[in-house]
């Protein structure tokens, strides 16, 4: 009997040990599954995209508005943004491109200054597998293949030229139009918009004379200096076109310093449509009465959408399309429209 009880006891202990081992195996299997599941979840979690943006400059009101809209739009999409100020310096931009490539960003929006030099930067990034689109100033299409986003500079300039010529005829019906253009010499976008302005103006007033084309270097103080010299040599110039906002404002400042700059003496046209320009346009006494207006909100969103198309494989990295965003013409004759533009594009509540 004792022998039988011993056998039964051994069997019970053995079964207990087996059950314990089974429970341990189940627990280990469960733990392993949980670890594997966590790893799978981590694999499924996508890292946020990281996009680099090089702006031509952080000084101009236009680029400040463009940057604001880029920040807002990428934040909505959960994109990490690396923004750099190109400082209107192509050598600085080249270093910034190398920096973005070393950070292995997912894409680059590049507002370059010089087309050919910028093309070398684009090729370098693409060889590293990083897509690049150019913005505002186009790369040299002979030396790099990339998508461009901007405005049709020549057509935009022409719209402002037609509007300015009609304003001139209404304001100075007995005067001959004599034009000074203040632009960034050697920068294709600036040259194109200036050429467009002249063509538009002369399509209405065929005998309008282009007296001088000046290099304002895109800056207000430089534009003011060259216009001061120009009106000393040619005091009868009565139409001034600044190929960006600061150059238009610089021309106006030079005229005001000479006791001119009113709608009774000449007209001034600028290109950007920034808040400082619109404040002058709303002043009934000021000679600045027209601005070709880029749309920073629309352009910022278009650049982000386009680089995302390439990153997501919807557009080839070396696609060479030009994607144009419409521009507008703001005049002093419709302050309500100017006020609406200022709110929508510059997020400004300043009363004109």
What's the arrangement of secondary structure elements?
Blueprint: H1 2-44, E1 50-55, H2 61-76, E2 80-85, H3 90-102, E3 107-110, H4 115-127, E4 132-135, E5 147-150, H5 153-171, E6 178-183, H6 188-204, E7 209-215, H7 220-233, E8 239-242, H8 245-257, E9 267-272, H9 275-282, E10 288-293, H10 296-311, E11 322-324, E12 328-331, H11 335-346
Parallel strand pairs: 1-2, 1-3, 3-4, 4-5, 5-11, 6-7, 6-8, 8-9, 9-10
Antiparallel strand pairs: 10-12
Please give the largest β-sheet: 6 strands, parallel
| Structural class by secondary-structure content | alpha/beta
Rg from alpha-carbon coordinates: 31 Å
Mean pLDDT: 90
The sequence of SSEs as H and E is HEHEHEHEEHEHEHEHEHEHEEH
Number of DSSP strand runs: 12
Distance between the termini: 111 Å
Strand order of the largest sheet: 2-1-3-4-5-11
Unreliably modeled segments: 1-5, 7-24
The portion of residues assigned to helices is: 40-55%
Q: What share of the residues does DSSP label as strand, in percent? A: 15-25%
Q: What overall geometry do the principal axes of the alpha carbons give?
A: elongated
Count of alpha/pi helices: 11
Organism: Vallitalea guaymasensis
GO cellular component, one term: cell envelope
Main location: other
Subcellular location: Cell envelope
């Amino acid at each position: 009997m004792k022998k039988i009880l011993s056998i039964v006891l051994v069997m019970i202990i053995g079964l207990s040990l087996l059950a314990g081992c089974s429970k341990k195996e189940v627990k280990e299997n469960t733990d392993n599954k949980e670890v594997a599941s966590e790893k799978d979840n981590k694999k499924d979690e996508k890292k946020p995209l990281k996009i680099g943006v090089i702006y031509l400059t952080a000084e101009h009101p236009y680029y400040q508005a463009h940057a604001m809209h880029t920040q807002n739009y990428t934040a909505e999409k959960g994109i990490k943004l690396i923004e750099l100020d190109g400082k209107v310096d192509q050598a600085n931009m080249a270093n910034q491109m190398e920096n973005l490539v070393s950070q292995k960003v997912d894409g680059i929006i590049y507002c370059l200054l010089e087309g050919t030099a910028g093309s070398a930067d684009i090729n370098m990034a693409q060889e590293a597998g990083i897509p690049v689109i150019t913005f505002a100033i186009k790369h040299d299409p002979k030396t790099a293949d990339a998508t461009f986003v901007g405005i049709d500079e020549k057509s935009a300039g022409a719209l402002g030229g037609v509007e300015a010529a009609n304003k001139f005829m209404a304001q100075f019906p007995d005067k001959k139009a004599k034009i000074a253009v203040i632009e960034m010499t050697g920068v294709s976008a600036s040259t194109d918009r200036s050429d467009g302005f002249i063509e538009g103006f002369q399509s209405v007033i065929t005998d309008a004379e282009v007296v001088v084309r000046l290099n304002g270097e895109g800056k207000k103080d430089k534009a003011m200096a060259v216009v001061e010299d120009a009106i000393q040599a040619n005091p009868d110039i009565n139409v001034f076109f600044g190929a960006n906002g600061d150059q238009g404002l610089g021309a106006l400042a030079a005229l005001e310093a000479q006791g001119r700059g009113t709608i009774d003496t000449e007209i001034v046209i600028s290109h950007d449509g920034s808040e400082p320009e619109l404040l002058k346009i709303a002043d009934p006494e000021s000679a600045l009465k027209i601005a070709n207006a880029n749309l920073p909100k629309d352009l910022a969103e278009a650049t982000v959408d386009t680089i995302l198309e390439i990153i997501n494989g919807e557009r080839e990295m070396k696609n060479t399309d030009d994607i144009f965003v419409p521009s507008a013409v703001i005049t002093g004759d419709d302050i309500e429209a100017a006020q609406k533009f200022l709110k929508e594009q510059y997020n400004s509540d300043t009363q004109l």
